[in-house]
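lol forgot to send this yesterday, sorry. struct tokens for the thing we talked abt
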């Protein structure tokens, strides 16, 4: 490995090790939810200014194309109306809030009425919940009872877009109210159903509820008989706000998730000696034989568990993949118990974990080799006819395809090799004229995934020239675009789009070294 790569990788690992929160930017959605329900938390003026500053020229909020802006725009509009409703906003600022909310409502009406909508976390309950809250505020405004709104008439009420159902939040709450318990999977998006839950189902937690500032603030705001709820919420939210200058990320902290993905990306090239002790320490601390959580308050999941097994093997500290057994459903792995839609990337990580473990412990092949064979067959079966894969955790098919290819490239047999070849052919067909790749336009992150796919594939003699030119163009693009301070677009799925910067930087750094190394 080159000196430059070793130095940069060592700095990246050291930076991740020092950061107690994780390198994600503030979330518009999450910040708006805290603004709406937590007037008792210091910093509201900063949060309101942020919401006004981040409104786009068309009146919407959020990243990505129009369908992705539905939820953040609903969240921002509702928050501004909630602030107006408190009646404590000076007249001049109330006018700005009213105008911004009005433009936001117009942007919502201009969105495609039936989507298709992205498969982001719990959108089916968050969207109708916010529409109901907005209409509650608008009813007051129409009646002239919304403090600070003056003579503003908001026009038509907000509508639940096609594909979502107005009754979904109440239905979910009733379902689990009858069962007598609320699954942990709803903690992260608690704000979507909180108003419909009986008090017997209100979670009792220490720290952030489901790692989410919005869920935590909502829990305190809806507490009926818990006089200490607000004080506890302030105690856990205030440190997050200080870290993010009064704002809030989608999840905090993301240390497990970040460290595993950074370590796995760098280990594809090789972990510099200076990082080995740190990465092995992460592997030892994170691996849990009963399953791994991506962040405090979340469910144990197959994705983080698989990555913990994988990183342990890559760092020379192999751990038993039996930790994944909890999630195996007979053919592949569920991300977590009670999952509604599956994930090919979680299963690709599981395949890599199994195969990496067998490489380290050949005697385990009888146990895990057969499971890896079945899993590779399942992954091949999920490939689209065009040659790519897509997944619920990322907006780009280049991420999902790279994950699947990286697992299948370790497999023997024509079935897996054919899938890898089809993926590489799709990548060659979709490269942009500037050498980049991207689902909404070329990006450094997606170009890194696409280049890794090409580097993983066996190249037929007749395609070698084109393959080499594609990699040369990708390397030139990355050299020009992947500069210090580059801002990566938000492409990862949580409640809305986000960008885990350190994880992306690790992927980019690794592929640039792989591209350099291919030239000898």
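and heres what i got for the seq, position by position
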């Amino acid at each position: 490995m080159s000196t430059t790569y070793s130095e940069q990788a060592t700095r990246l690992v050291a930076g991740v090790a020092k950061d107690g929160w994780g390198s994600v930017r503030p979330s518009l959605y999450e910040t708006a939810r805290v603004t709406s329900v937590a007037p008792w938390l210091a910093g509201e003026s900063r949060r309101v200014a942020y919401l006004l500053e981040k409104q786009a020229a068309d009146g919407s909020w959020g990243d990505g194309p129009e369908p992705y802006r539905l939820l953040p725009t609903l969240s921002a509009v509702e928050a501004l109306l909630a602030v107006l409703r408190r009646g404590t906003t000076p007249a001049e600022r109330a006018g700005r809030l009213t105008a911004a909310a009005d433009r936001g409502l117009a942007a919502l009406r201009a969105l495609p009425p039936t989507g298709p909508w992205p498969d982001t976390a719990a959108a089916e309950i968050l969207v109708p919940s916010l529409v109901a809250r907005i209409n509650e505020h608008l009813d007051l405004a129409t009646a002239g009872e919304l403090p600070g709104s003056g003579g503003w008439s908001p026009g038509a009420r907000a509508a639940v877009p096609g594909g979502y159902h107005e009754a979904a939040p109440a239905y979910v709450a009733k379902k689990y109210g009858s069962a007598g318990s609320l699954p942990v999977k709803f903690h992260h998006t608690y704000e979507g159903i909180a108003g419909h839950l009986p008090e017997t189902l209100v979670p009792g937690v220490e720290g952030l509820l489901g790692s989410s500032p919005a869920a935590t603030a909502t829990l305190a705001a809806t507490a009926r008989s818990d006089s200490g709820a607000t004080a506890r919420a302030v105690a856990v939210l205030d440190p997050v706000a200080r870290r993010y200058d009064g704002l809030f990320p989608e999840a905090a902290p993301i240390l497990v998730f970040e460290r595993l993905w950074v370590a796995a990306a760098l280990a594809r090239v090789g972990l510099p000696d200076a990082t080995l002790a740190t990465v092995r320490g992460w592997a030892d601390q994170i691996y849990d034989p009963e399953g791994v959580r991506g962040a405090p308050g979340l469910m144990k999941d197959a994705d983080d568990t698989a990555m913990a097994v994988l990183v342990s093997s890559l760092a020379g500290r192999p751990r038993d993949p039996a930790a994944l057994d909890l999630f195996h459903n007979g053919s592949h792995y569920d991300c977590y118990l009670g999952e509604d839609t599956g994930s090919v990337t979680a299963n690709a990580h599981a395949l890599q974990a199994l195969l990496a473990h067998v490489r380290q412990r050949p005697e385990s092949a009888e146990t895990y080799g057969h499971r890896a064979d079945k899993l590779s067959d399942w992954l091949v079966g999920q490939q689209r006819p065009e040659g790519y894969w897509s997944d619920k955790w990322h907006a780009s098919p280049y991420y999902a395809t790279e994950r699947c290819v990286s697992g299948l490239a370790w497999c023997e047999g024509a079935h897996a090799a054919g899938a890898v070849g089809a993926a590489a052919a799709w990548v060659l067909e979709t490269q942009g004229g500037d050498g980049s790749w991207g689902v909404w336009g070329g990006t450094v992150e997606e170009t890194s995934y696409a280049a890794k796919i090409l580097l993983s594939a066996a190249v037929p003699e007749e395609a070698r020239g084109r393959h080499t030119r594609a990699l040369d163009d990708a390397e030139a693009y990355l050299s020009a675009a992947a500069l210090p301070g580059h801002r990566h677009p938000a492409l990862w799925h949580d409640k809305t789009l986000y960008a885990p910067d350190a994880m992306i930087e690790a992927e980019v750094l690794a592929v640039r070294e792989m591209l350099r190394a291919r030239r000898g």
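The CA atoms of residues 46 and 368 lie 53 Å apart. anyway ping me if u want another try
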